[in-house]
TrEMBL record:
<keyword id="KW-1015">Disulfide bond</keyword>
<feature type="binding site">
    <location>
        <position position="93"/>
    </location>
    <ligand>
        <name>oxalate</name>
    </ligand>
</feature>
<keyword id="KW-0052">Apoplast</keyword>
<feature type="signal peptide">
    <location>
        <begin position="1"/>
        <end position="17"/>
    </location>
</feature>
<dbReference type="GO" id="GO:0030145">
    <property type="term" value="F:manganese ion binding"/>
</dbReference>
<feature type="binding site">
    <location>
        <position position="88"/>
    </location>
    <ligand>
        <name>Mn(2+)</name>
    </ligand>
</feature>
<keyword id="KW-0479">Metal-binding</keyword>
<dbReference type="InterPro" id="IPR011051">
    <property type="entry name" value="RmlC_Cupin_sf"/>
</dbReference>
<feature type="binding site">
    <location>
        <position position="83"/>
    </location>
    <ligand>
        <name>oxalate</name>
    </ligand>
</feature>
<feature type="domain" description="Cupin type-1">
    <location>
        <begin position="37"/>
        <end position="188"/>
    </location>
</feature>
<dbReference type="GO" id="GO:0048046">
    <property type="term" value="C:apoplast"/>
</dbReference>
<dbReference type="Pfam" id="PF00190">
    <property type="entry name" value="Cupin_1"/>
</dbReference>
<dbReference type="InterPro" id="IPR014710">
    <property type="entry name" value="RmlC-like_jellyroll"/>
</dbReference>
<dbReference type="InterPro" id="IPR006045">
    <property type="entry name" value="Cupin_1"/>
</dbReference>
<dbReference type="InterPro" id="IPR019780">
    <property type="entry name" value="Germin_Mn-BS"/>
</dbReference>
<feature type="binding site">
    <location>
        <position position="88"/>
    </location>
    <ligand>
        <name>oxalate</name>
    </ligand>
</feature>
<protein>
    <recommendedName>
        <fullName>Germin-like protein</fullName>
    </recommendedName>
</protein>
C-alpha cells in the first residue's frame, strides 16, 4: 500500500512538473451559427444615403481600456442611411439596436459567399463574426441608432470600397479589371470617385 501511494505521489509530482497538454482550435471553425436556417432574406434595393455618425469608445478615447480586449461604438443612421460593407480584422462585433428597424447582414467566406441578412427591431441583437464583411442599413421611416461592442481594444476597420478603390497607392486597374471582370475604364471611373 505504501508503494502504491508513493507511486501515485510521484505521478502527481511528475504531472505538475510536465503539465497536461491542452488541445483546442486557435480560431473559429466556421463563419457563423444561425438559430434558424430560414433567417436569410434578400436585401432591400432602395437608394442608399449617408449613414449618420459614429461615437467610438475605445482605447483612443479611454486609455484605461488598454489590454482589456473591448471597445464600443454608437452608430447613428440617417433615414435610409447605411454603414457600408466593412470588416473588423481583429474583433467579433455584437450589435444591439436602440432605435430601428435596421437591416443587418454579413457575407460568408469562400466558397459559399452567401449574404445573410435580417431586419432587426429595437432591442434585437446580432453578431458579426470576426473578419467577415458586414453592413447595416436603416430601413425605417426615421433615424436609427445601434450600439456595437467589439472584442478588441483595437478592432480595426476596413471599408471595402475605400480599401479597393481608394487605396493611397492605387491598385492597378489591370488587376482590378480582371478581379471584377469588367473593362479597365470602369475601374478608372470607380477609383476616381474615391
Amino acid at each position: 500500500m505504501a508503494h502504491q501511494l508513493a507511486f501515485l505521489a510521484c505521478l502527481v509530482a511528475l504531472a505538475a512538473c510536465v503539465g497536461f497538454p491542452l488541445a483546442g482550435e486557435p480560431a473559429n471553425l466556421q463563419d457563423y451559427c444561425l438559430a434558424s436556417p430560414n433567417a436569410n432574406r434578400a436585401p432591400h434595393s432602395r437608394e442608399y444615403r449617408e449613414f449618420g455618425g459614429f461615437t467610438p469608445v475605445s482605447v483612443t478615447q479611454i486609455p484605461g481600456l488598454n489590454t482589456l480586449e473591448i471597445s464600443m461604438v454608437r452608430i447613428d443612421y440617417a433615414l435610409w442611411g447605411i454603414n457600408s460593407l466593412h470588416t473588423h480584422p481583429r474583433a467579433t462585433e455584437i450589435l444591439t439596436v436602440i432605435e430601428g428597424p435596421l437591416e443587418v447582414g454579413f457575407v460568408m467566406s469562400n466558397p459559399e459567399n452567401r449574404h445573410i441578412t435580417k431586419v432587426l427591431k429595437k432591442g434585437d441583437v446580432f453578431v458579426f463574426p470576426i473578419g467577415l464583411i458586414h453592413c447595416q442599413h436603416n430601413v425605417g421611416h426615421g433615424n436609427a441608432v445601434a450600439i456595437a461592442r467589439l472584442s478588441s481594444q483595437n478592432p480595426g476597420v476596413i471599408t471595402i470600397a475605400n480599401a479597393v478603390f481608394g487605396s493611397k497607392t492605387d491598385i492597378s486597374d489591370d488587376l482590378l479589371a480582371k478581379a471584377f471582370q469588367v473593362d479597365k475604364r470602369v475601374m478608372d471611373r470607380l477609383q476616381a470617385k474615391f
